Amino acid sequence: LISPELKGPEDVVQVVLDAFEDVARRSLGPVSDLYDVPLGKHGLALDSIQIVEALIVCEESTGEPIGAPLEHGAPTLGAVVEHFSAA
Amino acid sequence: VIRRAARWTIRTAATRWPVPTYTVVGALARATAPRPPAGRLPDVLPELPARELRRARRRLRSSEWRSRALGVVMNTATGEPVLPPFELDSPLVDADRPTIYVSLHIGAMPALAALLRDLPREVAALHRMDWRLPSNVIDVYVARNESSRLVGFHRALTTLRSGGHVFIPIEGNAVRVHLLGRSLLLTRGPFALARLSGAPIVPVFARWSGGRARIHAGHPIAAIGDEQAMAVEVARELERYLGAHPGEIDDWLLTGLIDGHSPLPDL
After folding, report:
1. Are A51 and B151 in contact (CB < 8 Å)?
2. Fewest CB atoms within 10 Å of the CB: B16, B57, B103, B156?
3. What is the complex's ipTM, to 2 decimals?
4. How many CA atoms lie within 13 A of A33 on its CB side?
5. Distance (Å, rounded) from C-alpha B174 to C-alpha B176?
6. Percent of chain B with pLDDT over 70
C-alpha cells in the first residue's frame, strides 16, 4: 500500500466506507451487510458523480487506480473493497 | 431511395465544396420560407421589434437546414469528416489549460467539432449523437443508463486530470437556472467536473455565417465549490448570446422555456 497510514485490509475497508458515507452524507452501516449491494440507484442510490467522487478518494488514499471497478458499470461496495484491498 | 439519394448528394457536395454547399442549403431554406411567422419567440423576447422577430425566425430555418446537412456529413462519413471552416468571435483564453467546454444543441452546434479538432491537447467529447468526430477527439458515447454515465464521467475526469479538455452539452435534468425569464434544466456533469478537477468552464456556441461557422467562446468561468453558482454563470453567458443572436433560439429551446419539457437524462 502506498499510503503509510493504511496497514491492512481493515484500514482499506474503512477508507472505502468513509469515502462512500461522505458522498452519501449518511451512515451506510457495516460493510458486511453492504457487500453485494450495488452503489447505483438499485442499491445505495448514489449517482454517477457521487460514485466517481468516492472512488477518487479511495484511489488517492490507496494509490491504486480506479480502472477495474468501472469496467462493467456501477460496481457493488464489495467489488470496490476487493479492488482497493488488492493494492 | 429518394432520401438516400439526397443524403448521398449532400454528403458528396458538402465534403468536396463545404462552403458553397452550406451557403446554397441556407439560401434554399430562406427562399422557400421568405416570411415565416414569429411563432412563440415574442413570449421570451417581448421587446424585440416585429421585423427583428421575423428575421430571427427566417435565420433559424436557414440555420436548421445547414445543421441538418452537416449532420448528414458527420453521420455518414467513413473517414475524417470534412467540417465547415470556422472563425472565432474572439480568441480562446488560455487554450493550453485543461478546460471544460460546454454548449447547447442550437445553431451550428455540430461545427464545434472543428474547434475541438484544433485544440492543442487531447479532447474527450461526451455526447449521444451518431456523429463521426475528428480523429483526435475521443468519442465518449454516453447512453441513457447508469453504467454509461458512470464510465463517461470517469473518462472525462481522467482526461482533465491528465491535462486534456472535455466537451459536454449542458441540456439535462439536474440543475435549474433562469434563462430569458424562464426556467431551464442543465446537466450537473460539467459543474461537478469543474469542482473536482479545478478546470474552468468555457461556454461555446456556434452559428452559421453563410457557408462558414462562427463560434462564440464565453469568458472562462472559474471552478469553485458551488455547482449552482457556476451553472448560473453559464446561463448568464447563454442569455447574453441569445439576446445578441435571437435567430439561434430554436423551437426545442422555445418549447422547453415556455411549456417546460420532459428533461433529458443527464450526460
Report:
1. no
2. B16
3. 0.83
4. 5
5. 7
6. 96
